[in-house]
Amino acid sequence: MFDYYLYHIVALSPALLYFLNVNPLIEKKISSLLVFLIGVFLCFGYMTGSDWSTYELVYENPSWHAFYEPAFVLIMNIGYLLDFNFFTFLIITKLCCYFIIVRMLRRYGREYFLLAFSFFISMFGLFLFIDNPLRNLLAIVVFLIAVKYFEEKKYKYYILLGIVSVSFHKSALLIFLIMPLLNLPFKKLYRVFLGISLIFIALGASGLFATIFSSIVDSIPFFNKFNDAYLEEDNEFIFRSTLNMKSILFVGLFALIILNQKYSKKQDQSFLYKLFLMYCLLFIVTLFVPIFDRFTFYFCVFGSVILVKHSSLFKPSTRLNYYIVFVLMIIINTHTMIMNKYVYLPYSNYLEYMYEDKPSYEYRLNYNYKYSPADKNEDKK
Q: Under a CB-based contact definition with an 8 Å cutoff, are residues 287 and 243 in contact?
């Protein structure tokens, strides 16, 4: 567990650099080192995570590749032909995704990059890179690249990259569904967001949402497949109408930002704010359908940027309280994650075994389940 607390100390250090007003040259060198160290921690995980055990078997048995999306099969075949072992392939792939996300945080965060990076890595980094839904992560990264072309109204490139993203993970179909919404003027999108959010909250709180969603899943073949692949039989896992502390903190911050639209009136920030609204909307849906959490990750870079940029709207006297709430959210989120899922603890790094005989597949498969302090029964829900 100490590994993760040390990780968060390092992850929050870039934010500290931002507040200390360090010499820009020194700040750049220190922040580059911190980004590198965090990348090593996140991307070189060994026996942590959940999906790697399946992907390793698939990677080493090319005849199984037909069961996965074509772009994912393509990069696995390239790694296999280059004679990379599975973990070399996995680490290189995760590092590429990691540095593309860092670049996007830099692009959209600008002068707030250090704060946005700290928030993103602290809140979303563990799931994306340690638990590591690899195909989903690759689809998210392609979407982040595609967003630039949508903003520039180069729609054919956006659609082309959207197809590539879907070729990594079918959840990326969301890329095409949001096109009409992102083309709306901000005021109209804001009204749509409020209307849909209120409907979801009303239906979710009343319990009607579960009935409606189940009917949709049963009647549409695509969603039926999604149901078989991802949803559990336990309806308490699929639908929930209770809010935990993390959710309350998040919703409070969202409400605070959305009700104060001053920031979105800046022309160069309007599109970024639209993406943030998409993140907020999907987050509200996730409160009642947790499995939809996968969709929120497509927008978490933009959510991170807006949440930290919005601090500039506060008076200096209240800004500290805003950052204290951020740190509380991060602490609650991390502790909940690592104690509720065995995939995080104990932490192991591939570099520890670089020059040693590698443990067997069976040993690695059972290592975290055997030694984690997390409640295994709870984790399976």
A: yes
**H or E, element range at 85:** none
Helix count (H) and strand count (E) of the chain? 21, 0
| CA–CA gap between residue 72 and residue 41 (Å, rounded) | 24
Tokens of 374: 């997390």
Helix (H, G, I), strand (E, B) or coil at 360: coil
Distance CA 58, CA 69 (A): 13
CB-CB contact of 26 with 82 (8 Å): no
List, for residues 72-86, the tens digit of each pLDDT value: 999 999 999 999 999
Q: For residues 292 and 93, what is the distance between their CA atoms, to the nearest angstrom? A: 24
Distance CA 355, CA 370 (A): 25
292 HSE (CA, 13 A, CB side):
17
- CA-to-CA dists, residue 196 to 176, 204, 214, 298, angstroms: 19, 12, 19, 19
**DSSP per residue over 12-73, as a string?**
HHHHHHHHHT--HHHHHHHHHHHHHHHHHHHHTB-S--STHHHHHHHHT-GGGGGGS-HHHH
Region of poorest pLDDT, from 153-162, 184-193, 266-275? 266-275
User: Could you tell me if 115 and 109 are in contact, meaning their C-beta atoms sit under 8 angstroms apart?
Assistant: yes
How confident is the model at residue 238, as a pLDDT?
A: 44
% of the chain surpassing 90 pLDDT: 33
User: Hunting for tokens 């590749």 — which residue is that?
Assistant: 65
Please give the Cα distance from 34 to 27 (Å, whole number). Answer: 10
State the DSSP H helix or E strand holding residue 305, giving kind and residue range, or none if neither. helix 300-309
Contacts of 363 (CB under 8 A, 6+ apart): none
Is 8 strand, coil or helix?
Answer: helix
SS3 for 266?
Answer: coil
3-state SS, residue 90: helix
Tokens 């992560």 identify what position?
Answer: 137
Give strand pairing partners of 340.
none
Vertex 272, ends 266 and 273: CA angle to 5°? 70
Structure tokens, 72: 């994912």
